[in-house]
Amino acid sequence: MVRVKICGLTTKEAAWAAVEAGADAIGFVFAEGKRKISPYAAKEIIRSIPPYVTTTGVFVNTELGEMNQIAEFCQLDMVQLHGKETPHYCSKSIRPVVKTLHMGGLDLQPEDALIMYQNVVRAFLLDTFVQGSTGGTGQSFAWSEVKKLQSPHPLILAGGLHPENIVRALEETRLSAVDVSSGVETQGIKDPLKMNDFVKAARFQHVTAGG
Questions:
Q1: Which pairing describes strands 97-103 and 123-128: parallel, antiparallel, or unpaired?
Q2: Secondary structure (DSSP) of 118-140
Q3: Residue of 162, 165, 196, 166 whose CA lies nearest to 181
Q4: Do 12 and 44 form a contact (C-beta atoms < 8 A)?
Q5: What is the reported pLDDT for 134?
Q6: Taking 60 as the threshold, does the pLDDT of residue 155 lie above it?
Q7: Host H or E run for residue 26
Q8: Of 3, 24, 74, 147, which sees the most CB atoms within 10 A?
Q9: Which residues make beta-bridge pairs with 57?
Q10: If you average pLDDT over every residue of the chain, what do you get?
C-alpha cells in the first residue's frame, strides 16, 4: 500500500481535509517560509485529529534542544530534517528521523548520505535540489535516479508531485511512500479536492500494480 503524507498544513480545516482524503501522515513546517506554523497552533491541530494518523514536524538546521522541545510539546510522531543536520544531531533526536536528501545537489551526494546516516534515521526523503531552497518548491527531479540508490531504509518520494503525475512517478520509482505539499494547493492554499485526487491516484496505482 502506498503511504501518503500531506505536508505544510497550517489550519485545522486543512488538516482534517487531508485526513478525510485518506492521508496516512500529515506534516507541519517549523522552518521559515510561507507554510511555517507555530508550535502552539500545530499542537492544537494535532490534538484534534483522530488516532493512527502520523504527525511529522519539518525542521531546517534548528538548534537541537529547540527541535526536541517542539517535538515533545506538540507530541509529534516523527521529525523530518531538511537542512545540514549531522548524523550526530540525528542520533540525539527524541523522535524517529526522516532525513531529506536533495537530489541533484552539489554537496553531499545521496549515495554517500545513505551510508553516513544509515544508523541514525528511520527513512530518507528524496526531494529536488533547488538553490536557496530547502523544499516545497513544486519542482521534480529525474525519477530514474531513484533506481540507482541502494538504501538500508525506506525511501520517500517528494518534489513536484501532484494528482496528474503521481501515478507515473510511482510507476517509475516503485516506491511505496510519497510526500506532497504545493502539488495539492490552489493559489498557495491546501485544496481539499486536489488532496482527495492525489490520494486516490496513489491508491489506484497500487491496485493496478498489484493486478
A1: parallel
A2: TTT-SEEEEEE-BTTB-S-----
A3: 162
A4: yes
A5: 53
A6: yes
A7: strand 25-29
A8: 74
A9: 28, 79
A10: 91
Q: CA torsion, points 135, 120, 84, 114, in degrees to nearest 10?
A: -70
Q: Could you tell me which of 186, 195, 91 has the C-alpha nearest to residue 178?
A: 195
How far does the chain reach from its first CA to its final CA, in angstroms? 13
Pairing of strands 185-186, 189-190: antiparallel
Cα separations in angstroms, 166 against 157, 161, 173: 10, 6, 10
Q: Which three cell numbers stand for residue 198?
A: 492525489
Residues 6 or more apart whose Cβ sits within 8 Å of residue 91: 119, 120
How high is the pLDDT of residue 105? 65
Return the pLDDT at 188.
92
Model confidence at 203: pLDDT above 90: no
Helices (H) and strands (E) in the chain, counts: 7, 10
**pLDDT confidence of residue 117:** 94
- In contact, 25 and 46? CB cutoff 8 Å: no
Helices of type H across the chain: 12-21, 39-48, 64-74, 87-91, 110-116, 166-173, 192-209
CB atoms closer than 10 angstroms to residue 152? 11
Task: Report how far residue 66's alpha carbon sits from residue 89's, in angstroms, rounded to the nearest whole number.
Answer: 12
